[in-house]
């Protein structure tokens, strides 16, 4: 396991207008493509640069600790289907078939 943190630098911040800033961190080079990778842009609404610096540090800690969760465009239904499909080998066959029948009944009753 690599003990090196994911983010080492201080990050990049850009002022968008009087009250809006955005910031991100470099994640180093991708070993496959050789291109630099970056974290997703985050936005903060403030007039103070020091608040942006504090948010940058908090974001860095979040990225390094592994608690950052990438935003997703999944719907609740598609998430539930993925969740259900991933459970197949972890619960008993009877429980899995029961949850399948419940899932199918709720889908048809609301459609």
Task: Give a written overview of the molecule.
With 111 residues, this protein is α+β, with helices and mostly antiparallel strands. Helices cover 42% and strands 18% of the residues. The chain is built from 3 helices and 5 strands, in the order E-E-E-E-E-H-H-H. It has helices spanning 49-65, 76-87, 93-110, and strands at residues 12-15, 20-24, 26-29, 36-38, 42-45. The strands form 2 sheets. It has a 3-stranded antiparallel beta sheet with strand order 1-2-5, with helices on one face. A two-stranded antiparallel sheet has the order 3-4. A hairpin with a 4-residue loop joins strand 1 (12-15) and strand 2. 7% of the residues are buried. The model has no long low-confidence stretch (mean pLDDT 82).
